[in-house]
Design goal:
Length: 105
DNA sequence: GGGGTGACGCGTC
DNA sequence: CGACGCGCCACCC
């Protein structure tokens, strides 16, 4: 039922396939409204179930991880993405190739 | 009930 | 090209 924005966001993040990344705006849009970009960041910050919420697959518009706190403390998430086969151009993800496309439901 | 903050996005200067 | 501010919505206290 009326799942909170957080719940919706978590679902979207959980839907991100392996070896792909999504942007906050993308997740927000899939969650319901692209303006939730901020809420997405907040939701990932809460990340109550990192075991099912690969927040590290969520990057900002630049394809770069959050400049503020990078989960784990550092480029930790970047390393995880690389481990999935995601290529990085410097510190930015090759969005053109790995940005998760909108799976039209 | 109200206020403050925030892991963003975009536009504009 | 680079930097700054504003706005949107939700959560927490």
């Amino acid at each position: 039922m009326e799942q909170s924005a957080f719940e919706k966001i978590y679902e979207v993040v959980k839907q991100i396939p392996y070896g792909q990344v999504a942007t906050y705006g993308q997740v927000a849009a899939l969650a319901g409204n692209k303006r939730w970009a901020r809420v997405v960041g907040y939701a990932l910050h809460a990340n109550p179930d990192p075991d099912h919420i690969p927040c590290y697959r969520v990057v900002n518009r630049e394809g770069r991880v959050s400049d503020a706190f990078a989960f784990g403390g550092g480029n930790r998430q970047v390393e995880l993405l690389k481990a999935e086969g995601v290529e990085f151009v410097g510190d930015c993800v090759d969005m053109e190739q790995y940005q998760w496309e909108r799976p039209v439901y």
